[in-house]
Amino acid sequence: MQKRINKLILALCTVLWLATTGWSSEVSDEANRHFNRGMAAVEIAKTVEDYDLAIDEFKQAQSLAPDWPDVYYNLGLVQEKAGKYTDAVSSLRKYLQLAPDSPNAAEIKALIYKAEFKAEQVITDEDVLNIFVSLTDKSQWQIKGITNANLFVKYKWIKSIKRDGQDKLLITWPCGNCPSGVMSQSHRINGRKLEFGTFYNLCKESVQRDNCPEGRRYWLEVVSKNKVTMRMRYWYPEIMGGGTKDASFEFVR
Questions:
Q1: Whose CA, among 81, 123, 180, 216, lies 20 to 30 Å from 158?
Q2: Residue 209 burial (C-beta neighbours within 10 Å; 0-12, 13-18, 19+)
Q3: What percent of the chain has pLDDT over 70?
């Protein structure tokens, strides 16, 4: 793996050096200094994370020479390799704006289109939260691929998912013969995953309630911006003989 990364870095360095347009003599020594420090940072990088040093140096050169096309070109290439696709698109577009007659304009446009696509596939923590919050919106999502469909009862499915702080979600579900008719509980997401449980009371009399709740446990995972998978385990109440069954399905946008 390390050997592959080193080859990638070597290839990137070659492209960076070939990209220069000759403006270096027209900018300040300090801008040139940071530009070349950025080049050096790429040369000694051993991991993708090491590209951040090069990005910092190129950005300092950019602040000192805001109309220098080369710095935006090199910055964009390194940002793309570092997985900062949105930033890369911005830098490369700025390069084409400053150097519209560049002989490699077609290649840069192709790279921009690829980076735009990659940026669309990136799912941030904020995206994950918003996706989970939207799952109860029937206008956005369809449920497909249900196994053991009889275990998924729509009127017992969660009523709402709301933000509860920075990385928590407040989940509200109907609980049958609970005094308020609903229950709510806060849950923290784990990366792209969310796990929570609900119960539904089938009996009205308090003496029977211990035998009547049916339980459900859900495991959700955001696969993409347009797909969420879910597994569910259903616990039969004692009045129905007890036991468990599993089901799975997908939310598709």
A1: 123
A2: middle
A3: 87
Q: What distances in angstroms separate CA 169 from CA 64, 133, 198, one per listed residue? A: 44, 8, 14
CATH code, 126-252: 2.40.128
Cβ(229)–Cβ(250) below 8 Å: yes
Give the domain ranges of the chain. 2-122, 126-252
Structure token pair of residue 19:
């990209």
Whether residue 2 has pLDDT greater than 50: no
State if pTM tops 0.85.
no
Beta strands in the chain, from DSSP E residues, in sequence order: 142-144, 160-163, 168-174, 182-188, 193-200, 214-224, 227-235, 244-252
More confident call, 204 vs 195: 195
- List, as own/partner pairs, every contact residues 93-97 make where C-beta atoms lie below 8 angstroms and the sequence separation is at least 24, other chains included: 95/69
| pLDDT at residue 152 is higher than 90 | no
Q: Which two tokens mark 77?
A: 């290439």
